[in-house]
Amino acid sequence: MNKNELITNIAEKSGVTKRDVESVINGLIDEITDALQKGDKVQFVGFGTFETRERASRAGRNPQTGETITIPASTVPAFRPGNKLKEAVK
């Protein structure tokens, strides 16, 4: 399912216009992104938690030359599913 399909499905189930649903979803994505940029967690009880994780620097290999390179440390977004979501998917 892509974003447009999600918007259509929510609009049909809720009786709200697609434009309003799209506005809410875009706002949700923006708020989650802003929170993660600040280093905060966003938790939806039962659904899951969006958070950032620190990835340490590590050794890698250039596939073309075979040369060993150092991949720098980075911060990456992560999602940890909640128990209700895990049970629903089983």
From TrEMBL:
Q: Where are the compositionally biased (Polar residues) regions?
A: 62-73
The Gene Ontology terms for molecular function here are:
DNA binding; identical protein binding; structural constituent of chromatin
UniProt keyword terms in alphabetical order: DNA condensation, DNA-binding
Q: Does the keyword S-adenosyl-L-methionine apply?
A: no
Q: According to its record, what are the GO cellular component terms?
A: cytosol; DnaA-HU complex; HU-DNA complex
The protein's matches in Pfam families, at most eight in alphabetical order, are given as: Bac_DNA_binding (PF00216)
Q: Does the keyword DNA-binding apply?
A: yes
Entry's CDD domains?
HU
Q: Where are the transmembrane segments?
A: none
Annotated GO biological processes are: chromosome condensation; DNA replication initiation; gene expression
Which stretches does the entry tag as region Disordered? 54-90
Give the family per the record. Belongs to the bacterial histone-like protein family.
Q: What PANTHER family has UniProt attached to this entry?
A: DNA-BINDING PROTEIN HU (PTHR33175), DNA-BINDING PROTEIN HU-BETA (PTHR33175:SF3)
| The protein, known as | Integration host factor subunit alpha
The uppermost taxa in this organism's lineage are: Bacteria, Bacillati, Bacillota, Bacilli, Bacillales
